[in-house]
């Protein structure tokens, strides 16, 4: 069995717990050696159970067992290396997403007598990456909403229209130019910061249909699809 195994798992910070263990399989007897971390991945304390290939396979997700069995049989027949991304269900019923790797070297007889490998629990890393992506999306949504509200205020002040009409103008420009709504709003807010709001608004392709006092049921407006920012 491999004696040392270190891992780096993005995006986990230094000091955050990582589970990665090693194992060895004696092909003839079906018995295995597990490191402490491999026991932990399977929900056991070291020495709590006697690791065997049967126990090892029983903790695979039912949908993953047959592909893993075929992969292992192939390695045992010919030797070589293999890796598989799969799921482990531990003794408490908790699901783990793991990466396992096998290394089978034929002995002098030409037959594979033992297999060495490692297993890395990716669950925390995957969850952390998903959490960060969700946070980034949420922050982006709030930022977009804020700049759109600013742009609406600018249009309301310059054109003496209500909030709904201001939003319709932004939406129509977005649709007409095939540009994301928040990008249109950002450009207008930036122009305003440089004292060029009126000129920027005058360049809107659809601005002519939204002169102050126009009926806001104008077909140009009513057909606008309000897309999320």
Characterize this entry briefly.
The chain is an alpha+beta fold and 229 residues long. The chain has helices at residues 36-41, 53-58, 62-78, 123-159, 163-177, 181-193, 197-202, 219-222, and strands at 20-26, 32-34, 80-89, 95-106, 112-121. Helix content is 45%, strand content 18%.
Describe the protein in words:
By secondary structure, the chain is of the alpha+beta class. The protein folds into two domains: 20-123, Beta-Lactamase, CATH 3.30.450; 140-222, no CATH class. The protein has eight helices and five strands; from the N terminus they run ββαααβββααααα. A five-stranded antiparallel beta sheet has the order 2-1-5-4-3. Helix 4 (123-159) packs across helix 5 (163-177). The longest helix has 37 residues, at 123-159. The protein is rod-shaped and about 85 Å long. The two termini are 54 Å apart.
Percent helix, as a range, is 40-55%
Along the chain, the helix and strand elements come as EEHHHEEEHHHHH
CATH architecture of the largest domain: 2-Layer Sandwich
The order of strands across the largest sheet is 2-1-5-4-3
Q: Give the beta-strand count.
A: 5
CATH T-level topology of the largest domain? Beta-Lactamase
Q: Which residues form runs of ≥5 with pLDDT under 50?
A: 212-229
Instruction: Please tell me how large the radius of gyration is.
Output: 30 Å
Q: CATH superfamily membership of the largest domain, which one?
A: PAS domain
CATH first level of the largest domain: Alpha Beta
Key attributes of the depicted protein:
5 strands; 5-stranded antiparallel β-sheet; 8 helices; 229 residues; rod-shaped; Beta-Lactamase; disordered C terminus; alpha+beta; 2 domains
């Amino acid at each position: 069995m491999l004696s040392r195994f270190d891992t780096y798992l993005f995006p986990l910070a230094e000091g955050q717990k990582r589970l990665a263990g090693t194992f060895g399989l004696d092909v003839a007897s079906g018995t295995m050696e597990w490191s402490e971390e491999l026991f932990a991945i399977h929900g056991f304390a070291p020495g709590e159970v006697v690791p065997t290939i049967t126990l090892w396979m029983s903790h695979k997700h039912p949908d993953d067992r047959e592909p893993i069995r075929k992969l292992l049989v192939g390695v045992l027949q010919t030797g070589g290396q293999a890796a598989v991304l799969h799921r482990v269900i531990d003794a408490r019923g908790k699901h783990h997403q793991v990466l396992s790797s096998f290394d089978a070297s034929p002995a002098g007889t030409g037959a594979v007598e033992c297999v060495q490998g490692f297993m890395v629990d990716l669950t925390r890393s995957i969850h952390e990456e998903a959490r960060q992506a969700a946070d980034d999306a949420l922050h982006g949504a709030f930022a977009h909403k804020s700049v759109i509200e600013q742009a609406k205020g600018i249009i309301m002040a310059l054109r003496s229209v209500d909030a709904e009409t201001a939003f319709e103008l932004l939406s129509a420009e977005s649709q007409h130019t095939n540009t994301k709504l928040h990008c249109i709003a950002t450009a207008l807010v930036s122009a305003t910061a440089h004292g060029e709001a009126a000129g920027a608004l005058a360049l809107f392709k659809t601005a002519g249909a939204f002169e102050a006092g126009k009926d806001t049921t104008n077909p140009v407006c009513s057909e606008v699809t309000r897309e999320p920012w």
